[in-house]
Amino acid sequence: MIRISRRCPLGLLTLLAGLFSLVPSALPAQGAPQWAQDLLSAWYTAYNAGDAHGVARLYTEDAVVGTNRGRAAYAADLAARFAKVKATCTGAFDGFQVAGASAVGWGRDQCTETPKAGGPEVKTRTKWIAVYARQSDGRWLTVRDEGEPIPGASAGAEVAFSGSTVCRQTVRHAIPVPDQPGYQFVAGQGVCKPEGAAIAGVAMLEETFTGVDAVVGNGAEWRGRNVNTLANGDKIFAELECRTNLAADGSTASGMCRWRWVEGTGRFRGITGEGTSETGPTAGGMNRWTFKGTYRLP
Length: 298
Known about the structure:
- The chain is mostly beta strands.
- Helix content is 15%, strand content 54%.
- It has 4 helices and 15 strands.
- The radius of gyration is 24 Å and the shape is elongated.
C-alpha cells in the first residue's frame, strides 16, 4: 500500500507492532484472512484509478494516516496527489495478526508514478504497517497506516544474493535409448530445503525441481524448472540448465547449473535475474548446492 505525504521513522513502525503484540491472542504471524485480502485489493484498485474517496472510504473517520489526521484530510491529500500523477502500484502482505476485533498487517509494495504534466517516471518501493478494527456492522476498516521507503533497495536495482540448499530426488523415470548402451533420458523431480537463504528479506522455505536429464556414460545434461516457495506464500519460478558428472551408482559426483528467474507471484511478480549453482558428491541420497546470483524487482 503506497501512502503519500506520510513517511514515518522505522521506530514508529516497530512501536506499533510492539504495542499490538501485547494483545493476548496476537502471537504467531498468520496468513491474511480473506477480508484483509479483499480490502488490500480494493485499496490498490481505487489508488490506481486515482479515486481518492474510494481509497479513503476504507479507513475510519478518525484514522491516522501518516501526517493526515482523519479520513477527510487523507482524501484531500490523495486528491491533490492524483491531480499531478498517474500511479500504478502493486503490493502484498508479508504477515498478519488478528486478536478479536483488532488486527495488524504488514507488507511491501512497489509503485510507478507518471507525472501528468510530463517528465520521467518515478519508481518507489515501500514497507508498511496498518492497524484494522472491526466495526459494529461487521466491516473491517483501517485505523492507522504508516509506511517508509525501503533503504538501499530502489525499484529496479540489481541486488546480489547467495546461499545453499540441500536437495533430494523423489521421482526418477529412466528411458534407455535402444542400441546405444549408456545413453538414456531420465525424467525426475525432487525437493530442496534452503539453509537460511532469503531473497528481498523474505525467507526461502522450499524448492521443487522438475526436469529431464540426457545421460551419456557418466555425464549428463539437465534442463528443468524450479518452483521456490517463500515464507510469505509467494513463489518464484526459475529455468535451469545443468551439467553433472555421475558416480558409478548413478548419483551426482559434481555439477554446475546456470539459472534465471522467469516469473514470480505477489511481491515478486516481474522479477528478473540470473546466477549459478554448484554441488559436490551425493551424501545420504542428498546434494548440497551452493548458489549465487542477482535479482531485480520492478
